[in-house]
Amino acid sequence: MTDAFISLAIDGITRDDFELWAQGALQLLSGEDFEPTGGIHDGGQDGYVRKSKGYPNHYIQISKEADTRGKIRKTIRRLKESRGVQKLTYVTSQSESGRDLLEAKLSHELGVEIVIRDKRWLVIQTTVNENLKSSLYKYSHSLIDDLKKVQSSERALDYSSRLSVVAYLESQVKSLPGTENFQDLCLDTVIYEALSATNPADDKFLTSSQIKDFINDRYPNMIKKSKTPLFDRLAFLSSKDNDPRIRRHPNDNYALPFSVRDEFNEKNLSILEAEDAFVGSLGKRLRDSNVEVDDEMHQLIIATVRHTVVETLRSQAAHFSASFSASRAELDIRVFDIVRDYVKKQSLSPEDAEICFDGASLIFRRVCYTSNDIERRYITYLIKYFSLKFVMEGDTSVSRYFSEMASRLRVYVGSDIIVRCLSEVLVPESSRGMTNALAALSRSGVSLRITRQVISEVYHHICLSNKIFAMDYECWHKQATVDEIKNIDKILIRSFFYAFLEPRSHERQPRGWRNYLANFGNANWFDPEMKSEDEFGSFLLDKFNFDFVELDEIQDRVDEKLVQRLTNSILGYRDIETDGAKILAQNDAEMGLYINHERKARGERVSSDLYGYNTWWLTEETAVLRALEEHDQRSDIVMHPQFLMNLYLIDPQLTRADSRRNDDFAPSLMGLRITDRVSPYEMKKFVQSLGDLSELDEAAVRARIRQASNKLKKSNPFFEEPQTVAG
Q: Which pTM does this prediction carry?
């Protein structure tokens, strides 16, 4: 059992089994006379340390609860009600960073010595103790057996072996903590890759010419775009003054020293273990979802999810590329199409194909919204791999942008991005991909800005969602299932339902719709008679640490007649003529022109490429770009959100600037269509078909929902081309 497997097993066993296993672990490891009390869910103690005389005053608490601080405080309060307590040892399945500081803080606050044994401590102890491994296997054998099957299976598209470039880059960044030139780091990385098979003991070397040929074959643009000549970089890496990372031998021969090869091998092994543990985690999710399938279908669903994750991240890297090429293409990633195409290649019956499609879609969505440490670790490797591969194979301006631009970025955040962030409010904090990314970028020095128009758009989006929920969903939301609500085109209503129907995978279950709205300041703000846009705007500024730009600052700097012409063009591209659509189109026209004005006023200039610009619009919007081109205005104003995500993950300058950076990022949902939603027209027919439910009892309501839901599913069968709309 590797560290990753042990960690996954601790995550996967039940609360009761974890308490029993941890009690046994303490008895085995503690040098003191530990006495388990045998109780489960007692709230105050799971054991105590015997004293030679008198009553015990050192107690043990074992828990899988996420809130370590709250659980310890509650335990001490309950113990003090009936016992004298001087010390508490708290064993948790959670990983607690800064454990020593937390122990000191709680000990001072509670007047009791607090000792915390977290998951990292348990993993270390289990790694070196065969008895602990055996007892853990007893409680998690189905999970471990799944992992053994995974180890013998074919790896996903051979990316595990190619992920070695990530290992080389990370090792070099660590060895040269002062290096800020990303181009040099990339060149170092491919030099290591070229030398990976060298070994002086076996007389295996490469000359500088062979290294150059290897790099030119794998990464044709790498050498010519680097400011530092290859031979100078080889001399630097092999210099005795630099604790040489490579060795230069007689006759222009180069090789990696044993210590560096060993370091890379260890890192590469950890990447292979990360993939095994990732697939094992998918298997556990499938078992826990109560989807009843045989072993063959179980493995096929997991293979489908693994393929979908890899292909989705490859597609997101294409979004990354589009930010550099100023692409006007629609960048919507239809995850359900990736799943469907893979399932169709498996020669399944229509019934089995639908089972595989539904199961894989369910597990993929849960990985996105409630990813665990193991899943985020592997996903981070993949994101880094695809991003790094693109940068290495891109043109000169790409790597220069990484080296020089990050700290000067001024980004205006679009309403679509903010709505995405709000929709993450109840998913676990570690899984809030877009929210956490914006926070990390802000800490790293990127200036995030929001306009009055954007505040208004987001506010009215929530008001409209509130109105639609009251009309279409309020009367039957307690009887809904995921099958019905996944087709709703309003993202906030969907996010409410997911939290309401799947509370175990969220921070908490909202008591109702208005309780959910309270997460955005005050539910009353969004009622029809309220005019609370300013209050909501203040909430957004405080929550996301945005800089604010007032409405007149924008309107005073753009040509009113040109705004109107752009507005009409945008409406034509969107083919929508409602009053709300006209307002949104005008806002987008003003924003596009304002970005261009800002660049000119600030003296931002480019020569042969667009990467000299500092001011950008962060959005997935594309219609306004076509309208700008139509009216001979610069349209290279949009930076796709995925660009900033990938930039942050692989640029050393940004990561060093953020001392709170977490190496395991949640997957970003930007640009993803996870479910194959039916058209708004079909969804409206579904709601209307429910009719008046006010006089029906709960069983009758559920029956009517099932009947309408079956009709809805038939409107979008698995093997037909999906009828979908953007959203």
A: 0.63
